[in-house]
Design a protein that fits this description.
elongated, two-stranded antiparallel ribbon, 160 residues, mainly alpha
Length: 160
């Protein structure tokens, strides 16, 4: 069925172009809930880690970081990911690329940590960071990426 474009009255300012009968993602409510939770979690983690960048070092019994600003910066980046996840929650039909970047980070982060643990640079107790930041999100993000892929693939062939 072809999509019909029309202008939606939105009040003062620019008019939004909206599609009638636009396809909706499978499990939309689930995906929205997951990305709201991921967004709020990441923003909270980012704020906490920016304000207390030594928490992981204390928790893991490691020497305090010489340059805690680096971990604080990581907290800011994680917090920014939270904002992107809230955007995916707002419009799950259009969030495949943002979620794919986030999922990639959730895979690469643990790989980097495992290398540090394998080399004996960081203790195993630091894996708690990957459990809460990465591992618990793999399945819901993976399901979302699978459900959103057809809409994203279709958008690649249509003019913006």
């Amino acid at each position: 069925m072809p999509h019909l474009d029309y202008l939606m009255e939105t009040g003062p300012g620019p008019k939004l172009k909206t599609r009638v009968n636009a396809p909706r993602i499978l499990r939309r409510r689930l995906h929205r809930a997951v990305f709201v939770a991921a967004g709020l979690y990441n923003i909270g983690w980012g704020i906490y880690s920016s304000l207390d960048p030594q928490w992981l070092f204390r928790f893991a019994g490691m020497p305090m970081a010489n340059h805690p600003q680096i971990f604080a910066c990581l907290g800011m980046v994680i917090g920014l990911y939270g904002i992107l996840y809230l955007e995916v929650a707002r419009s799950p039909e259009n969030g495949w690329l943002l979620a794919a970047v986030g999922f990639t980070g959730k895979v690469l982060g643990p790989i980097g940590l495992l290398i540090l643990i394998w080399q004996g640079v960081w203790p195993r107790s630091t894996i708690v960071m990957c459990i809460t930041n990465d591992f618990i999100w793999w399945i819901p993000f993976g399901i979302y990426l699978r459900d959103a892929w057809p809409l994203y693939r279709r958008s690649l062939g249509s003019p913006v």
